[in-house]
Amino acid sequence: MSVDAALAWVDDRHDQLLARFSELLRIPSVSTDPAFAADVQRCADWLVGDLQRIGFANCQAIATAGHPVVYGEWLKAGPNAPTILVYAHYDVQPVEPLELWETPPFEPRLHEGRLYARGSIDDKCGAFANLIAFEALLETSGTLPVNIKVVFEGEEETGSPAMEPFVRKHKDLLAADLMLICDGGSEPDQPLMFYTARGIIGAEVKVTGPSHDLHSGLVGGAVQNPIHVVSTIIAALHDQTGRIQIPGFYADVQTPSATEQGLMAAQEQEFFEMLKSQTGRDTFWANELGSLVARTTALPTCDVNGVWGGYQGAGTKTIIPAEAGFKVTMRLVADQDPHAILEAFSQFAQSFASETAEVIVTKGPASYPVNLLYDGPVIEALQAAFEATWGKPATLYRQGGSVPIMGMFQRELGMNLATLGFGTGENGHAPNEYLLVDEFFRGVATAIHFYTNMGQQAA
Amino acid sequence: MSVDAALAWVDDRHDQLLARFSELLRIPSVSTDPAFAADVQRCADWLVGDLQRIGFANCQAIATAGHPVVYGEWLKAGPNAPTILVYAHYDVQPVEPLELWETPPFEPRLHEGRLYARGSIDDKCGAFANLIAFEALLETSGTLPVNIKVVFEGEEETGSPAMEPFVRKHKDLLAADLMLICDGGSEPDQPLMFYTARGIIGAEVKVTGPSHDLHSGLVGGAVQNPIHVVSTIIAALHDQTGRIQIPGFYADVQTPSATEQGLMAAQEQEFFEMLKSQTGRDTFWANELGSLVARTTALPTCDVNGVWGGYQGAGTKTIIPAEAGFKVTMRLVADQDPHAILEAFSQFAQSFASETAEVIVTKGPASYPVNLLYDGPVIEALQAAFEATWGKPATLYRQGGSVPIMGMFQRELGMNLATLGFGTGENGHAPNEYLLVDEFFRGVATAIHFYTNMGQQAA
């Protein structure tokens, strides 16, 4: 069987593969600091070279307005086999504070089953695990079970400013049946697969009143207080149940499917425990709107993240301030359009303006929610792969946070998405980042199974 | 006529009187700085000595928990004549920043009709003008037309912490028919007399939510946001017309008399112009509640002076903060009880507490509103005095700000109050404080007329 041969090929070469992985980890591809631009390019070139070495075609580091995107393809599985677009990113976070690293971040160190290095879990593992899987399959059976296109990003840690124009320009090149996002990880004894993330929009609101701070004893009662206006806007955002009051806010919110409801119910108790430990409380807010999981992942939210105005020092200062303001972010779910909601919020806030107080809204970033696959053949192929390697399926979970780039991929490329993460370990974005090596190779085996399962579905 | 003789006595001695006033101004009686405590005592002793010199009895610097109170009395006008308790304060503000003074603050300098010195308008003039008036009347007619008690405070600039216990302890000593507050001034060509001041209460409110700041993307929708609670409390303080919504808030608010209404109407246009220049706007707030003068002087107000919570820096930080808060002050009018209103506010704010958010109210200072005389014999005697010296009556005005000590005097001593200010000039509490010398002597003449008028009313 081709899977067994490929798995054995990997098993026979752990040390060599880790040595080659270490080559990749030694390149300080810090995308956020322009001083490392040449290293980012060198990292892209290394990956292009490795794709060529294992037999991929059309390998190139495609220039963008930012850092290069690594592309390569292997399309000889035939027209009946699906084409999978495999995403990972090869850039890494800065290493500061350097003094907290026990060994240098770009000198990989293997210790007690952990591979310490910057980028080991976030996310060079995502690129390299796939390279191993592809090479193992090609070396042992001369072919891949599916068509593969890889796209390895070089600026994920900077917020991916160049990726949207890149994707728009290269839609034909990136066309595929499925996009597999390989960024993230699992718990050591439990594989995880997230299948939804919320969009996010942000705005800053400033309310201006008198031309300068005034004595509240002398003019209070005649001069509208910007703090009161700010508070009135914020208070009007929710009703008493916690439901958001911006007109049209919920119009495009999709109700989770029965399958999703089941997945959500299975997460509820764990989520309650998590919230309890995070908040120091065992009662929560807005209970009428839905379960904890629903409220934090399947429903949109609106939170003021900061408010200010007037005097904040010790004691009393009897002023009516000239202005006050707040920052707000909202998490959106499919099919809410972030630009439309941002505009609706802006109009809502501005409806509180008057002859005595201006309301100025500065719109911030707007990113789309994303719904990935949670059932169907692709998920079956993934779960079978997890069963074969972990002895159990991955827990499908929803996340309340946002992964802006996935929403962009989904919207621009119009294809299904699924996730497969290889970065099980600790300290991503922190000193002493490390990868659990056994889990990593278990992930490689999962990938080999998954691609094989996908090929068999097509056969 | 005794008035003419007294006025002539003063006119003949301008230079000598200013020289003696300069002795008083040279004493750096800065009450806020303990380093000047001996100077404050020396200033009190100087006043006691001067009261004795001009023929007052029972002169003493009475020790208090703070700085001494200067007392003296002249009670030989007979039982039919009224007794007037004359208040001024002899302590002064600090002089910093010293480098902005053109000449040293405690070296009085006469220049172009201005007497420059710290304390020249606030409020050594109030004490010394009365001393001149008393001396002139005593020297020219051997008597005063009314009985006089003087009480010169030594800690007004520190908020008068020791005065309430002092007054409570010395009620018999201070008993009188009228208290004349000699602290303040006029415009150069228009005498002013304020007849009401609002009380003030303050509080700080803190709302606590989760035990620490949380990621709003991960827990938003389940964790109540303290900023939202703070905003809901603030927004609930007023209805859309600007009327305050704290239960019972207006229960004890007195409607101004017809006379007051007339006085207020006369102030309205001037007040509009003042507000226009202060705010940079020509439209105002809460117009339905009353005139501008009514809203800022005859009605209570509630202003949040500061609000804070969460992230206030640049860009976005997606948190639900552990807490948020605000500072509020309210201006009260007769007969609102500051302690009762503060308690009503506290209960109102706490009614927004829930299982997911505590509301903690810290009560601040509470002072009573004060209503002084605005008509009747005393005001007639004052206005006749102004007519005789300025050629026109004083403008009776209401002030929106607070003079906590007056409310205390009124409440503790249970007597009528009126104001007569001598401090016409500029830069009280600021560098280069100066008194307009001609206006000061016009005030001395007004006092001579007033005391004489009061004596004639009794005769």
Précis, in short:
The structure is a homodimer of 459-residue chains. With 459 residues, chain A is of the alpha+beta class. In chain A, 38% of the residues lie in helices and 22% in strands.
Topology (SSEs and partners):
The structure is a homodimer of 459-residue chains.
Chain A: H1 2-11, H2 14-26, H3 37-54, E1 57-62, E2 69-74, E3 83-89, E4 109-111, E5 114-116, H4 124-141, E6 147-153, H5 163-169, H6 171-174, E7 178-181, E8 192-197, E9 199-208, E10 214-215, H7 216-219, H8 226-236, H9 258-279, H10 292-298, E11 301-310, E12 319-320, E13 323-332, H11 338-350, E14 358-367, E15 370-371, H12 377-390, E16 395-399, H13 404-413, E17 416-419, E18 425-426, E19 434-436, H14 437-458
Parallel strand pairs in A: 3-6, 3-7, 7-17, 8-16
Antiparallel strand pairs in A: 1-2, 2-6, 4-5, 5-19, 8-15, 9-13, 9-14, 10-12, 11-13, 18-19
Helix pairs in contact in A: 1-4, 1-14, 2-4, 4-14, 5-13, 12-14
Number of helices of chain A: 14
Computed over alpha carbons, the radius of gyration of chain A is 25 Å
Strand order of the largest sheet of chain A: 1-2-6-3-7-17
Mean pLDDT of chain A, to the nearest integer, reads 95
Q: Distance between termini of chain A? A: 15 Å
**CATH class group of the largest domain in chain A:** Alpha Beta
CATH architecture title of the largest domain in chain A: 3-Layer(aba) Sandwich
Overall number of domains of chain A? 3
* Strand element count of chain A: 19
- Biggest pleated sheet of chain A: 6 strands, mixed
